[in-house]
Every structure is written in structure tokens, then in C-alpha cells.
């Protein structure tokens, strides 16, 4: 799924071009030369993490919140504290512990990355590369300290944190500019007036067939079960706004689940499975 991007222009009166750092990020988004590497990495990630239960856990489906943003707090906190305390006499950086603290973030991050669209994946690869370089520098710091070279070890730790800050900037671009990991159906309940709304005629809804209906400009998916009950949910998958009405219907514990046709998240009044971890607005009419 290719999502075209173009350089933003801002200004008052005369048009001003986007500043150099952001032009570089725009270029990174559209660097299709990375796609061969990305395809290999994606294949490797899917081969290593293929069980649906494991993927759901790493996507954060059970708690209903993406796991990666939670996992990174441990490593970022540990790394930052270590570098700040480095100049204090009598303190030592346990770099092996710092490196180990990154493992949950690494595994959950690559799992989430494998389900993104190409522009997000390109920036994500650069984000991962910066973090890997920073982690490697912490490893160098540990090796230097273990040989008694504390001064160079401190310098290596500071360089590691600077490198990881670059990775953090790319992560911010992913989340805030490219909307990676956000709930793409979050706005639905805010676009519809409170209370019961007339969506469609009941007689016009066939049994056991997905129908798309709109309330104003807001699209919904409508499903009529064999017993006549009606289920309505957002037509946007919370993962990447995939068209739910083009998906397949499954049943879990007698409740219908609709599977997004793009990345196979399942949503319903019943339990869901990832990569989408957000709760899509759903209800009955």
C-alpha cells in the first residue's frame, strides 16, 4: 500500500520551503532504494514472530495499548540516568544491564514495524539503525570500562545517548507526522451527535452480509446476524484506517468479528487480535 507524500510548504505572504532537516525526513520517507532491504527484514521478522498469540501480545492487544511505547521507557530511563550519573565520582554504568533493558523494546518495535506502510517502514528502519548504533556504543562503553578505561567509556556512553536521541527524533516523526501506531478510528465518536441516530432501514440490511452505510460523512459497517441482531462499528480499522467493510466476517464465542483486509486485525464486541490494539467504536442499533 503506497501512500504518496509531498513536501510541505508553509509561510505567510511568500511561500517558504520546509527546513532542511524536515526535507531530509521527507526524502527518507520516499527513499524506495531501501525497499529491498525492508522486504528482507520484514520477511525475517514475520518468520521469527509468526504465532498469532505472540504477535497479539507484542502489538499490545490484550491491554488495548501498543506495547512498544511502554517498553521503550525502561531503556530510555536507564540510559539517560546512566549518562547523567557518569561524571559523579563513585558511580559506574552497568552497560550490560542497559543493553538488556532494550530487548523488550526491540522485539515489540520490529513486530509493530512489520505491519506499517512503506513510508513508515523506511523511517522505521532509520530509527532502528540509530538505536542499534547507540546500543552498540553502550557496548563499546562497557568494554572500555571493563578494561579500566573509564574516561573513554564515559565518552562512548555520551555518544551513545546522542545517537539514540537521533533515533528518538525519527520515532517522533513516525508517531506525529506519519501517524504510526495511532488509533485511526479515534475521531469517529466525536463526529457523530450523541444519542441514537437513524442510520438506515432495517429491512434493507441482508442477513450475514457486510454492508457499508454512512451517517453524514462518517462511514460505518453494518452486520445482521442470523438471529436478526444488528452490529455496527466504524468502517475504519484503528491500525491504518483500512476499509473494514471489505473484510471477512468470523465468529468467536457466537459474536461476529470483522477482519481488516489490510493487516488482518479483528474487531468486534468480542475479543480482538492485532496489529490494531485500539478499541474501535462499536455498538448496536
Automatic annotation (TrEMBL):
Q: Please name the CDD domains in this protein's record.
A: Rieske
| UniProt-listed PROSITE patterns | RIESKE
Q: Which UniProt keywords apply?
A: 2Fe-2S, Iron, Iron-sulfur, Metal-binding
**Source taxon at top rank:** Bacteria
Q: Which InterPro entries match?
A: Rieske_2Fe-2S, Rieske_2Fe-2S_sf
Q: Which residues form the Rieske domain?
A: 197-285
- Tell me a Gene Ontology molecular-function term this record carries: metal ion binding
Chloroplast keyword on record: no
Query: Can the keyword Transcription be found in this entry's annotation?
Result: no
Task: Specify the protein name.
Answer: (2Fe-2S)-binding protein
